[in-house]
Amino acid sequence: MGGLNWTCEGQDWPHREHSHFVTAGSVHWHVQSLGEGPVILLLHGTAASTHSWAGLMPRLARTFRVIAVDLPGHGFSRTSDRHVSSLTGMAEALDSLMEVLGVSPSILIGHSAGAAIALQMALEDRAAPDCIISLNGALIPFPGAASFMFPFLARMIHLNPASAHALAWAARDRGRVRHLIEQTGSYVPESYIDGYATLLSSPRHVGGTLAMMANWDLQGLAARLADVTCPVHLFVATRDRAIPASQAQLARQKLGASRVTELVGLGHLAHEEDPDHVAQLVMTHLST
Predict the structure, then answer these.
(1) 280 in helix, strand or coil?
(2) What average pLDDT does the structure give for the chain?
(3) Fewer Cβ atoms within 10 Å of its own Cβ: the N or the C terminal residue of the chain?
(4) CA–CA separation, 134 vs 96, rounded Å?
(5) Which of the 8 DSSP states describes residue 148?
(6) Is the dihedral of CA 127, 129, 135, 137 positive or negative?
(7) Would you list the domain boundaries of the chain?
(8) How far apart are CA 208 and CA 158, in angstroms?
(9) Mapping DSSP to helix (H, G, I), strand (E, B) and coil, where does residue 25 land?
């Protein structure tokens, strides 16, 4: 169903030379690996892919082995298993991948929904990280009706086979893609706009995004945050229009060992806007 072709759309993909493909469980994964040392696993947010980490990866790879993946149904990772679209399904699928790769991540870094996956992995003993870093993490259900309506609407759209194609067709307009990104409070380089335009013009990627949104349940995660035993660093961008900064404060109250760091003047895609600054803060937190 309109998937991305590695020999075509992947020809100029960021860090293509560090890409490989691995089958683990029900997922055929696109994986990138840079550097040597303790393993950092990078988990992108909804609708993104490995390209989101293009600027951050080489900076962290000076000290660590950095592994980034396209989540199931996103980018160049393929699956026909609907179960993996859920929070628990993602955690289980990533556990299977880590086993096949023969690695045990020391650090989990997740952006937005990827941060929720990182915490779910820790809670289910799918990983035993020394710490988790949440970049504008989506960890707490949105207040009011939004917590119900967003997954409900995504589920309704996802059930219509034509919806993914229609949304992908609309994404062929780069102006619309740029506007969508800027609505999150972020102003990213054109290379990232190109990446998102490529992704969102793929019906399979859009379908994977909708499936993830439709099956997302943060209620259970939020109720168990106090059970997370490793330190959690919450990075919060002051210009983020997608996830209110107040969400991080609520998460901090539930988490045991955690602290909040502000990314001043950056938006939801802070690590794409200023990878130097974000990498510096990450390294500072990991050394303390």
Answers:
(1) helix
(2) 88
(3) C
(4) 22
(5) H
(6) positive
(7) 16-286
(8) 9
(9) coil
- How crowded is the C-beta side of 18, counted as CA atoms within 13 Å? 19
As a whole number of angstroms, the distance between CA 153 and CA 222 comes to: 22
Q: What DSSP letter does each residue of 158-212 carry, written as one string?
A: HHSTTHHHHHHHHTT-HHHHHHHHHTTT----HHHHHHHHHHHT-HHHHHHHHHH
- Tally Cβ neighbours within 10 Å of residue 227: 12
- For the whole prediction, is pTM greater than 0.90? yes
Residues in the chain: 288
Task: Say what the pLDDT of residue 159 is.
Answer: 46
Spans of the chain below 70 pLDDT: 1-2, 142-172
The correct answer on CATH 3.40.50.1820 for the domain covering 16-286 is: yes
φ, ψ (nearest 5 deg) of residue 245? -60, -25
Three-state secondary structure call for residue 97: helix
